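# nightly structure sweep
# worker-07 picked up a monomer target from the shared queue
# config: single-sequence mode, recycle default, output format = structure tokens
# input follows
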Amino acid sequence: MKTIANPLRRNVAIIAHVDHGKTTLVDALLHQSGMFRANERVAERAMDNTDLERERGITILAKNTAVNYGDILINIVDTPGHADFGGEVERVLAMVDGVLLLVDASEGPLPQTRFVLRKALERRMTPIVVINKIDRPDARIQEVLNEVFDLFIDLDAVEEQLDFAILYTSARAGTATTSMDTPGVDLRPLFDAIVESVPPPRGDPAAPLQMLVANLDSSDYLGRIAIGRIFSGQVRIGDQISVCKLDGTFQDTRVTKLFAFEGLKRIDITAAAAGDIVCLAGIEDITIGETITDVEHRRAINPIAIDEPTVSMIFGVNTSPMAGRDGQYVTSRQIKDRLERELLGNVSIRVEPTDTPEQMKVLGRGELQLSILIEMMRREGFELQVSRPDIVTKDLNGKLMEPIEDLIIDVAEEFQGVVIAAVGMRRGTMTKMVNHGSGRVRLEFRIPARGLIGLRSQILTDTKGTGIINHLFAGWEPWHGAIASRATGALVADRAGGATAFAIWNLQERGEIFIEPTAPVYEGMIIGENARAADMDVNVTKEKKQTNMRSSGADEAVRLIPPRKRGLEQAIEWINDDELVEVTPHNIRIRKRILAANMRPKRNAEL
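# output follows
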């Protein structure tokens, strides 16, 4: 049995489903631990520090922080809640000794709650269960607690794990209590529970150095920064170290900088020992999963096992007539370099070559993960075109296997019929239906992963924006058969030019328009959705003929319906296999794969 490395340390991760209040709770912990001055201005959800995270209100990247409680330093890792970013959670669990499992007091355990809890229980961690948002008017605290117990039993938790501490919190108000009978005043009960329930890190400071790299950061001045936990031994600035690479080779180097976390800042330290979570700078080409060791004792720790990707997309060079107008980085080499940089810090993404050097196949956990990668590239000045998401299949004993997902949809009772019909059309089968009596129904399905492509926007339309959709990878099953694609065709521009109000006005009754008047178009660009199943080539640049003859309809006002502009995710979900999304820093356009109308195979109405 390993000895306790440092009794004054606690390493803990906060895990939960999306939107259950992880980052808000970290905010409250930071404030109440005295990490900020009384007059210091701190942004709400301070840990979500990228523009995308702030805009969407979600955590995308796992981040480290640390707070002092008495003499004890508590290292806290904030993790994402979306299933698509599950790889972030998997690698973070290698750094910590305990987890805070947050559960919404109204929604209860959801798919990602199950996923993160299963990973924690597999590592023999005893979670602290935190029922959050107890001040919600629709909170059902006792029922949610019973559901959490059922989930633990369902995941084969051992007896010690079932003896977990329970706290009731309101992260927004910054209160916690161990019993609903006594209202909380501050988060002291939560700090106490972390100190008592999370074991101090184990390891031998006198043994040879072993540190597992679980995260990466970079600095313009220091280069790549490796973040990880020291499992044994000690490290000091100036020490000679060896990096055990994933391919079995070794790289000898020297520690130039050493940091520890304090609140939202990193502080310089001169030495660190077993049990500490630290940052090492000055190591070139280090990647996640590698081990930093003593030069004399090169013993690697087993790399972090990450679940396989289930969705793939083709990223290619923008080949449209408008290529190069917006973007700074447009070549295949630049796109390839950017994707390789992404691989360093994102362990759940893979990149594979295709038949042509202009295109790369990118595999990930879901549409959301890949669309966020595209959005990040777009904001950095890249131009590219992407295909419709496709699923990753396996061949097992001569049978074609496809990924299956557990799907949970939360809707108002009046919409349950249309939702069940929509999922049924995509080969989904209902497994459970729960009505809490609050006017909303929770529907649970098993559905092929390809059936989820485009489902979110359809459900939001069918439920007038009130449906809540969550899904989680469940396993592999034999191919379920064909799933019908989009039922409508596209309105395709047949020539280059600028769109006119007159042409759009005449086309409105044909379907839904995606562009505004004066928008530049090119042949093969999709400018709208046809109401019928076939594609239609249209002239959207047509101008009204001028004449000196008077007519009764001459002064008829052109009334345009506002266009439905599709964002990146909606565009990716909407397209068919013969279509692409053109992504530039300022525009998102939908186009046909083959632009010339006379070269393009006609889409049959019965497809």
